[in-house]
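Look at one such:
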Amino acid sequence: MSRQLASKWRKTAALMKYPVAAVHIPQTKAFNPGNLLQMLSRYGMVYVKPIVGGGGYGVIRVSASGGAYRYTHMKTTRSFASFSQMYRSLVRVKARRRYLIQQGIHLATIQGRPVDYRVKVVKTERGWVFRSLVGRLARPGLCVTNLSKGGTMLSGRRALGLSLPHISGRHKRREMRSLTLTCTYIMESQFPGVGQLGFDYGLDYSGKIWILEVNTRPQ
């Protein structure tokens, strides 16, 4: 039986110990009004996510620009004239569980729809082997790419070619596989017993790879 870890905090903290992985991790902080205001001031856009949860459930995009504050939950976007108004409303709509705040990455898109990548590895008698590297294209109007939320699966090659035509897709797939192996060995050293891992990567328009999430029970 493969070991499973639900907490995003624990998995992020484990990777943050190693500089080779930490440079790919968006800044992450506990959800509270002070941290949210600070990160909005710095990044302009963040995601608030349940610490325990998957499938895109409960993920909310929050942004600030031109003196206005907005959040998008599923397909609904609401705007507010002040941070305090937005925060009070946000607390009412978020799931009743502990949340974290993650630096917002402006993902490369296909026809305006964000795309990210899931790389899955499984441990066998021969060691860790790759099972898949696929792109996930968000359903129109949504900021999450999860297939359970209507996202569309594409081959990694096609997703990279359509979203980042100015960058070598072959090089990026190789880079994702290399980063996956590095992070897999880190995860195994920190959490002995893991037998399968799913890494969710986002690429910005410069082609930088960001580790959005690590799953120990990838679908």
About this structure: The mean pLDDT is 91.
